[in-house]
């Protein structure tokens, strides 16, 4: 089953705020390997395939550095098609000398972690075959074991780096929230996602269609963490794609029943989770 197309509900774009547009473009093109699709002074759209937007950069007026211990982006996660692709990314990052912040075997996937120059978190990962994932009832078994980087690098194509594979997509997003109970009510009772994993009482992983997770939610910045200043580096918004307008309208009805506002904009509905994370609700 495909986990990032109908009939699942999934993440397809993320917009982040940065302090220097030119510095960020250089990083996301030279280090991460994305391409510029559109650009003006304060806004840039990045793509992997040259056609579809994947990541958007915003430079607010009077932007301020990322505020610590607040809600917002923990990381966005770029999903590459194969282990060889992830090996090529790792080989490229080693060649560039860009510092990694982690590398993990999650049983369902293999991942490397880093941050952009502003401290926005990034995961680049590849999924293992879904038929190898282990389930205990309704929860998928995940872990954070050390990545066997030596073995992974043996899969590298050993060719000149040409950037992210065109098939790269936004695999998931992981958020800092202030309260897991309120987050669960919003994302599960409201938007319709299902819990697929707990990490103690500090994190939840939720998905549609039995993916290992489309959204991660954690309170690692503290229960009751504040929403950052709107000028702060970090998450601007992310988009959730529903299979059809009927499913989207049902989600809006559920959110309305929870006293959550949804505003109709051109091409999407805008809402906000209890921790101040802004979301665009769209259909394919």
Automatic annotation (TrEMBL):
Pfam families in UniProt: Glyoxalase (PF00903)
Annotated VOC domain residues: 10-127, 169-284
Keywords for the protein's UniProt record, in alphabetical order: Metal-binding
GO molecular function, one term: metal ion binding
Protein name: VOC family protein
Species this protein is from: Bacillus mesophilus
Taxonomic placement: Bacteria, Bacillati, Bacillota, Bacilli, Bacillales
